[in-house]
Structures are given as C-alpha cells and as structure tokens.
Amino acid sequence: MSMLSEDKKDPDDPEELARSWDWHIRRKLAWSSEASENILEKLSRDRSQWVREAVAGNASTPAAVLARLAEDSSGFVRAAVALNGRASAGILDLLAGDEMTDYDSTLQKNRYLVKEAAAKSPHIDPSTLDFLARDSDEHVRAAAASNPLLPPESMSRLVKDVFWEVRNNLARNPSTPQDLLAYLSADRIMDVRATAAGNPRTPAEALAALASDKSWEVREALAKNPLLDPKTLEDLAGHWSWMVRAAVAENPHTPPETLRRLAEDPDQSVQKAARLCLKMKMIKYG
Predict the structure, then answer these.
(1) Which of 99, 223, 227, 274 shows a CA-CA span of 20 to 30 A to 60?
(2) pTM tops 0.90
(3) Torsional class of 35: left (φ above 0), alpha (ψ -120 to 50), beta (otherwise)
(4) For residue 40, what are the CA distances in angstroms to 9, 23, 101?
(5) Does a structural domain hold residue 286?
(6) Is residue 279 part of a domain?
C-alpha cells in the first residue's frame, strides 16, 4: 500500500519539490511567482544560501519572512532582500548599515552590495537615503544618486562629487532640479554632459549650449531628447556624424521638412530612420 502511494506522488507538487535533494530545483521553486507563502516560508530556512536568496528576491515573499532574511548570515541573501519591492522602510534602514562586501573582478575592488541595493530601493526613507549619499564608498553614493527619492539638498552636495558616476547618475535622475542639471551639462566628463543632454528636465538654455559641444556623442544624446526644440534639431541634422543625424531622424519632434531632407541622406541608416519616422507621422496624422 505504501509503495502504491509513493507511485502516485505528483513530481510537480510544490511540497515534493521543496523537499528535493537538488538545491537547483528548490531554488527554481523559490523564484516561482506561483509559490505559496507557506512554501516560501519553508524555503526561507533552506540550508542553501542560494535558495534563501531566491526567496528573498521573490515579490510574493511575506514581509515577516523578509524581515528575518534581512538578518541572514549570507550577505547575498540580505542584498536580495534590499532589492525586493516589498522590503519596508524599516528593513531598508537596517540594511543601510550593512558592511557586507564582495569582490568585483572588473573594477578590482570590493563592493558594498547590500548598501548599494538599499540605496536603489523605491521604498527607502529619504533620511536613510541621505545617510547612504554620504557614504565613504563612491559606488554606494552613486547608487543613492540614482534614486528619485534623494532629497534636493543631498543632490546639491553630490553634484560636485569627485566620482564621475555619482554625477552621471544625478544627470539621469528624473528628480534632479533643473539648476543642477544645468550645472551638470557643463561637466568636464563627456559622459555626464551626454547624460544631461538626454534628460527631458534639462533646461532649454543648457540644451542650446550643448548643441555646440565639442563631442559628437553629446550631440547625439541631445538629438534624442524628446523635448528638444525643432530649430536645434534642424541644426543637428547637418552634423558631420551620421549617428547624430540618425538620432535627429528618430526624434518624434523633428519637423517633416527636416525628415524629408534626411530621407535623402548619403548614409543609408539615416535614410531608413527618416523614412520610417515620416511614415509614422503619416499614419498618425493622416
């Protein structure tokens, strides 16, 4: 009788999968959006840190389980909690002081994974975020600079940060005040100016100045700005770089007459982009 009941066991039953000897199977279950809270609670106590990490990253994991995993022995599990959209401000406040590091072979330095993850959370308290924006590690500050919840006074301090990625993330941040975007548009690092050029919140005066930037990469980013005025788009349509002209051709606000000129451009990529944009305008407006 017992052998018969064993044969009738469903191999896809979550309870059975949660008891699998293979941690890869248990991890796959822990990632599943269909996993029940009961299964996730059970797997949150798994002996494998990679299974617990999957539970910590699952959007269905209960708040009480996340709170316990925020104090897990594995830093990777705690980082996954910080990245979970259900992590509360209280949990994130705890994780903001986490000193766990992991070696980044690309940068050849240690990264504070948990603090960086907490700094990116959309649920972090602004005061906690300001604390992380003052961190001694540049990548933690860069993560904080990318968060739209960062207070304006914190942004005013970071706009002069020595690490260019901090300034670059501020230039991309949709909440950065216009006066700071104008300041960043004149940054000595080309990448920062290009990022500011593409931000729709960058003031018109700064965009006009960027149209004369010495780097074609900045002008290309500028040509992609959805709020760039038609006159500047027309001027950029005559730029020597085909990538700038292609960006103009792809901008939905480029005037039809400019598009018609670009449709006859010597470069085929520019031609194709301009003709496609003209076709879309004809479909939209008839």
Answers:
(1) 99
(2) no
(3) beta
(4) 21, 14, 26
(5) yes
(6) yes
